[in-house]
Amino acid sequence: MAKGTQDEPSTGLHHFMGLELELGPDVLVPREETEILGKTALGLLPDGQPATVIDMCCGSGNLALAVASNKASASVWGADLTDSTVATARRNVERLRLGDRVTILQGDLFGALDGKGLEGQVDLIVCNPPYISTGRLETESAHLLESEPREAFDGGPYGISIHQRLVRDAVAFLKPGGWLAFEFGVGQERQAASLVTRAKAYEPVEFVHDDEGRPRVAKVRKLP
């Protein structure tokens, strides 16, 4: 498996959670830490039960396709902003022959889902949003932009601009008791917890750690 690192270029085919995915110069390479998010998502969906899932900021479609491949009863919606990313995700859906259960849409976060009747119907929302601050992308993390798009990394002035919108806007789409699971950067767990608390719509946040014991994924349940 060609596991992604922050220095790995996004070209050719890559493997993610047992799937072979097409990438390209305008699409983020799925990182190793995103497999933590993928496995967390699968653990939140009971086997054999129908489920509606959203993969927000879907990129190559890696999380959407991992969920659909492992949960045969899941209906999955993926959404991303740019033409090239959406086109790549759709090709991966076709490659894996999952078009009957995975739909990729284009738009600005949940705006991509307008008119689809998903409000209050979703069991799980997963998201691997950009989470590097704009300032860091101009300095010590500038090398990331040599081979991958700014949109995949730039999380605004503090690295959590997309997280803020995600946590706030996911509430309208989740069922009572539905789950939100998202990735964040090293050292951002306090910011993530604060966003969840301020939303006043979720149970207390739980963190999932990487192999080095660092929190990298948040999972949180919408209040009943």
Automatic annotation (TrEMBL):
Q: Where is the Methyltransferase small domain?
A: 49-142
Write down the NCBIfam families for this protein, in alphabetical order. Answer: hemK_fam
Keywords from the UniProt entry: Methyltransferase, S-adenosyl-L-methionine, Transferase
Name this polypeptide is given: peptide chain release factor N(5)-glutamine methyltransferase
Instruction: List the lineage, top down.
Output: Bacteria, Pseudomonadati, Pseudomonadota, Alphaproteobacteria, Hyphomicrobiales
Entry-linked SUPFAM superfamilies: S-adenosyl-L-methionine-dependent methyltransferases (SSF53335)
Q: Signal sequence: where?
A: none
Q: Which PANTHER family match?
A: HEMK METHYLTRANSFERASE (PTHR18895), MTRF1L RELEASE FACTOR GLUTAMINE METHYLTRANSFERASE (PTHR18895:SF74)
Which EC number applies? Answer: 2.1.1.297
Catalytic reaction equation(s): L-glutaminyl-[peptide chain release factor] + S-adenosyl-L-methionine = N(5)-methyl-L-glutaminyl-[peptide chain release factor] + S-adenosyl-L-homocysteine + H(+)
Say which domain of life the source belongs to.
Bacteria
Which GO molecular function annotations are given, in alphabetical order? nucleic acid binding; peptide chain release factor N(5)-glutamine methyltransferase activity
